[in-house]
Amino acid sequence: MTRTNAREIAVHFTFELGFFHETADELLDAMLTPATFAQIGGEEPLYAKFPDEEQQAYIRTLVRGVYAHCPELDEYISRYAIGWKFARIPRVAIAIMRVAMYEILYMQDIPNAAAINEAVELTKRYESPEVVSFVNGILGTFVRSECLPERQSPIAPKQETGEEQPQ
Fold first, then answer.
1. What is the pLDDT of residues 101-152, one digit of tens each?
2. Mean pLDDT along residues 15-42
3. Cβ–Cβ under 8 Å, residues 62 and 10
4. What's the mean per-residue pLDDT of the chain?
């Protein structure tokens, strides 16, 4: 399994958080299991192989981070979605943008361009070309507005505090 696949699984889980009244950890405990992957893997090739420890940690970090920072991430989406009401944005696109923005703001080992490119490629799998352009535009404007150009890192470096790091 690649990091791209792990990211896509994290997007799936992030998307599911919007439908159930459970925490990120509750969802991860239910979904990120060999039994769940075995059950889903027969129908969905993405789930055919259970993630290794590093990939599980990455998925957990993304899902927990998006869950913890959802209001902040949604504010950025709303701010840069000029002419679109948040409720009108496809939910899959929202999940993809939340994951990409979380990576940009809080995961300094992932280059901003990589986070955007992965988000755009993922959006192509699930949405129309218009939505792909929309997601690309929002993420590009977000990075140009919120990040220092010479370092391509957030203007105000964010620090995760009080959250248990995945092992």
1. 999 999 989 999 999 999 999 999 999 999 999 999 999 999 999 886 544 4
2. 93
3. yes
4. 89
| Residue 167 resides in a domain | no
- Look at residues 24, 64, 159, 164 and name the one whose alpha carbon lies nearest to residue 105: 159
What is the residue range of 137's domain? Answer: 3-154
Q: What is the DSSP string of 39-63?
A: HHHTT-GGGSS---HHHHHHHHHHH
DSSP code, position 23: -
Q: Where are the alpha helices (DSSP H) in the chain?
A: 3-17, 24-31, 34-41, 53-80, 91-106, 112-126, 129-146
- The verdict on residue 108 lying in a domain is yes
Token digits for 35? Answer: 């039994």
Closest CA to 82 of 129, 134, 154: 134
The reply to whether the predicted model has a pTM over 0.90 is no
Flag whether 164 is in a domain.
no
- Evaluate whether residue 92 is within a structural domain: yes
CATH number reported for the structural domain that contains residue 145 in this entry: 1.10.940.10
